[in-house]
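Re-run with default settings, no changes from the original entry. Doing this only to confirm the output is reproducible before filing.
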Amino acid sequence: MTSIVMTILTLAAVLILMVGVLYALKWVMAKSPVHLFKPSDKLKLIERHILDNKRSLVRCQFAGIDYILLLGETDLLLDKKPVSGESHD
C-alpha cells in the first residue's frame, strides 16, 4: 500500500516539476530580447502553383531579390532578379 502512495506522490512531484520548468522557460523566452521563433519579414511568398503531386512552382522574395523556384524531389532555381518598384501584395 505504501509503495502505491509513494509512486503517486513521486508522479505528482515530477508533474509539478515539469510544469514549473515549462513556466520558467516561458518566462525566460518572454524576457529575452531575441525571440527564437520570430517570423522573418525579409521572406515573402508571392505565388505558388501546384503542378502535380510532387512538384510546385514558387515565386518568393527574399532580401530584395525575386526568386522563381521549382520545388519537388529535386529543387531548382529557375530565375533570380532584383525586385522592381511595383508591389505584388
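Helices lie at 2-31. The mean pLDDT is 85.
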